[in-house]
Amino acid sequence: MSQPTDANLVPVAQYLRMSAEHQRYSTTNQREAIGQYARANGMEVVCTYEDSGRSGLTLRGRPALQRLLTEVHDASRCFKAIVVFDVSRWGRFQDVDESAFYEFLCRRAGVNVHYCAESFDCVPGPMAAVVKSIKRAMAAEYSKELSGKVYSSLQALARRGFHTGGPAGFGLKRVQVSPDGRVRRELPPGERKSRADDHVELEPGDAFDCGLVRLIFHLFVHCKMKEADIALQLNWSCYPSQIGLIPWRADAIRTVLRREQYVGTNVFGLHTQKLKSASRYVRKDQRIRVPNSFTPVVSQLDFDAAQLLVGDRLPRRKWSRSDLIRLVRSEAAEFGRFNVAALHRRGGPAALRFIECFGSVADACSAANVPICRRTATSGRRRKQRQAIKVQILDWLAEHYRESGRTFYCHTSTRRACIEDSLTISVRVAHPQVSHDSFGWTLRPDKLVDADLGIFARVNDKAEILDYFVIPREEDRNGFVNSKGAVTGNWLEQCRCASPADVIYRLESSGSSKICGVTRMLRQSEARRTRNLHSAERTVVKDVGAFP
Q1: Tell me: the pLDDT tens digits for 353-393?
Q2: How far is the C-alpha of 296 from the C-alpha of 284, rounded, in Å?
Q3: What is the pLDDT of residues 451-477, one digit of tens each?
Q4: What is the largest CA-CA distance in the chain?
Q5: Residues in domain Resolvase/invertase-type recombinase catalytic (predicted)?
Q6: What are the φ/ψ torsions at residue 244 (nearest 5 degrees)?
Q7: Do the bridges between strand 408-411 and strand 416-419 make them parallel or antiparallel, or are there none, so unpaired?
Q8: DSSP string for 385-442
Q9: In the structure, what pLDDT confidence band is assigned to residue 315 with cuts at 50, 70 and 90?
């Protein structure tokens, strides 16, 4: 920010905003109009607050305006007034009083807001206030009318069988088609069509992903497996999910089973969120459904059978933070202490919901002002320690491979990392445990993340790392370290590493027969799984057609 050079000029701040509207509202045109207004009224623009590509419906998502309203109340600010192009650039708030409220905050702090393209700015008085209110209502109504027109056009396109937005979904892909129905190209995730007169359609995606979709329906309908069991089976078999390294979960399987697009039906209007309002689901009778819009992935019989099985189950309740706090307090008042396992057996939320909302069950008890038992406090503390140690290990691995110029990808929530898109790593932490009068550390393989190598950090009660173990995937068994640090087996002793440097050396030992053998075995195993899946799909799904 620069200070005014002429003492006679009033220092002002200009606020610029542009969403995706007409060129008339570009930030360049706004700067020129504000500059002319400032020169004609003895002002000098000393600072600029700009929100480019931001909607004016709410204050949320407009960091420049938020910063401006904060600095208005700062006594050391370098401006005495604010200049905006017109009322619509200040905002298209659906409640016109909200726009007036933000302007009142500035005026109460001694900073007036000037609109250089409005006629009422030059003629103050009661009529100017009336015109300003009308202008604010017109700005809000413009957004409402534009939203209605856009939504109507999207509905018209959906009735013609076109895809109107959002990701395609697992096993599907988006393609750009010309007005005469000719497919131009496949659209990668996040990319939009390049021509305004073209449209987007859905088609079956990769053959392997389509086979996984049919396999999920077969396991659920014919084998009577639950969603969680299907997710566990896919993770154990190392079948990739839509995001790749993220493991399958029960809710992802449930989403696949309920997705009507897999039978070739184009669906529009599952939920709506008009004018930045809260998202709400649309009833089934109000949605737009166009059957036979594209080639189906699964048969209609399997899909209908899956819907009957899913419909028989009670919908999962969405527990809010306040609901969880009330549950903790009621459980503690009734039973004297809070036991999340007993609560889950009676139909309450699982421990994972408390962990997602509060960080741990102990933190949930603290938020509800409920005494924490020793076991819950220890479990919550160890969970935080494990997460911190995993992030620490992944950070120094990422720093090492970044300095060496090699590709390294890591995901802390799934405890998985990948080096050069070939060697996958699972990071785990082993705490000391007491069981059957024995004290030691148990190293258990990660079943959710089927990786080439597992890095185990052995820690003490103070969360201090004692040593590391780099265990290959072929050693699919538990290892045990006793209280003196001795291991139960020569195979585990060969995997011990004393420092992070030893861990990196073990990972980079491309000449190591163990690591190379595991990687070679993994690739051969993946090839066998792929062939088995193709063979199973040819025999399981006969009504959809031959598996590609």
Answers
A1: 887 788 778 888 888 888 877 777 777 788 888 888 888 88
A2: 21
A3: 778 889 999 888 889 999 988 877 778
A4: 91
A5: 11-161
A6: 95, -85
A7: antiparallel
A8: HHHHHHHHHHHHHHHHHHHTT--EEEETTTTEEEETTTEEEEEEEE--EEETTEEEEE
A9: low
Tokens of 147: 């939203």
CATH placement of domain 10-145: 3.40.50.1390
Q: If you count them, how many residues does the chain have? A: 548
- pLDDT recorded at residue 450: 64
Q: Are strands 408-411 and 271-272 parallel, antiparallel or unpaired?
A: unpaired
pLDDT at 242: 64
**Averaged pLDDT, 189-214:** 85
Q: How far apart are CA 36 and CA 305, in angstroms?
A: 69
CA distance 343 to 327: 9
Judged by average pLDDT, the poorest of 416-425, 496-505, 520-529 is 520-529
- At residue 472, the 3 state secondary structure works out as strand
3-state secondary structure string, 279-293?
Answer: CEECCHHHCEEECCC
Question: What are the backbone angles phi and psi of residue 203, rounded to the nearest 5°?
Answer: -145, 160
Strands 172-177 and 199-204: antiparallel
Give the pLDDT confidence score for residue 64 in this predicted structure.
92
Q: Which of 267, 170, 283 is nearest to 217 (CA)?
A: 170
All structural domains of the chain with their residue ranges: 10-145, 172-311, 321-372, 385-508
**What's the token pair of residue 85?**
């192009």
Alpha carbon of residue 289 to chain centroid: 27
463 DSSP assignment: -
Instruction: Tell me which fold the domain 172-311 belongs to.
Output: Hect, E3 ligase catalytic domain fold (3.90.1750)
Q: At the top level of CATH, which class does the domain 385-508 belong to?
A: alpha beta
Per-residue confidence band for 38, with pLDDT thresholds at 50, 70 and 90: very high
State the average pLDDT for the chain: 80
Task: Confirm if 121 and 114 have CB atoms less than 8 A apart.
Answer: yes
Cβ–Cβ under 8 Å, residues 130 and 97: no
Domain 172-311 identical in fold to domain 385-508: no
Least confident of 150-154, 206-210, 478-482, 514-518: 514-518
What is the side-by-side strand order in the sheet with 408-411?
Answer: 408-411, 416-419, 423-430, 453-459, 465-472, 496-497
